Amino acid sequence: MKQHMTRMPRGSHCKFSFVRRAAAWTPSLHQQATTTTHHVRSVHESRKSQQPTRSRWLSTAQAETSAPSFTARLGSELAQMESEGTYKRERVITSPMQPAVSVQGSDAPVLNFCANNYLGLSNHPRLVAAAKETLDSHGLGLSSVRFICGTQDIHKQLEAAISSFSHTEDTILYPSCFDANAGLFEVILGPEDAVLSDSNNHASIIDGIRLCKAKRVRYAHCDMAELESALRASASARTRLIATDGVFSMDGDVAPLHRIVELARRYDAQVFVDDCHATGFFGPTGRGTPEHFNLMHEVDIVNSTLGKALGGATGGYTTGRKEVISLLRQRARPYLFSNSIAPAVVGASLEVFRMLLEGSLPVRQLQDKAKAFRASLTQAGFTVTGAENHPIVPVMLGDARLATEFADELLLMGIYVIGFSYPVVPKGQARIRTQLSAAHSDEDIARAVDAFVKVGKKMGVV
Known about the structure:
Aspartate Aminotransferase, domain 2, 3-stranded mixed sheet, disordered N terminus, 2 domains, alpha/beta, 18 helices, 462 residues, 7-stranded mixed sheet, Aspartate Aminotransferase, domain 1, 41% helix
């Protein structure tokens, strides 16, 4: 079968991304399917019948005979998304987040392989109990921002726990890590400064950088030669900040942090890492990308989240030097103008860090499961990307509609995944991003691999 190879930029630390296209696949294949191995087909068909169609969107746009109105223009954009297979629909879950979830209309659970529930804590009994206890002791909410009357003792305790776990001086909490990224750069960087950002950084980093007045330089993904050139070219800047994801969420590859830190020290730059897809489960004790590279005291600023591995509820944070954190408390707009994190979430998050410090969480087991799952898919003929021991395992398909149809077919077999396409990933690099959880059993993983192989053969991918 023909393979199309998309090569990363010259000098990239990260692996090449191979995109396999199925010559035998057509958009009508899903409709032609007449058999199923799972009870959720009725759910799937019901969901399809309720989906807006291209003609529905176009009927709005075509009703305009003069210059397109506001709603007609939006309808035209929606119709184009439909035709390209990039329109995103939300499946409705009616159970707690766990390895097996109930999808609305289905009569039995399906295995979830697309959640950020890396440590399996989203419905952990200890966290649920801690949340309930804190709800009773500290109430539902605070109806305030932190600097007015929105800081409770538990907020300060959680910030201290994160600092202790991260080996940093201080921490500031936000409603989300998107807010943490949105609030950071405009506070610490000005017109005299420069920020050097990896081209594959998360959207929240990109948006946060847009808000600051520093000179903005984007270097090719994981390309250390290009980063060094940018550092040389920005030598006159007052402060230079290198900004990178620790683990890139769509590809599952790891930033070459050891080389980034080396360049930063050589050129007197600062290092910022967004570690949302590493905190709690990557590195020997789950302390993320800095620990993975034995650089716990070498990264200047780390942003991360409570909404993925650490319970999956909500909340983000910045941790680092006390001067950085203190200035953020004074000037970061998402901190100053957003309500405090709800007490129940704070109480549950405190319990997560107790568990991490106890060493009772299955960090190593998760990494082993990721290796086994990746190896099985590769052996079956799929093209996967990412780091060997990271639980993000993207299965590259190339075509957007193929990715969507592939995910729908997997749901019929009891495997819940989602197809990702433009603009979330570059055009022509559509994929199914699978994510392992420590709560997945070996039988769950084997069942997922078997389903991938069957659908892959049916659709001409393997």
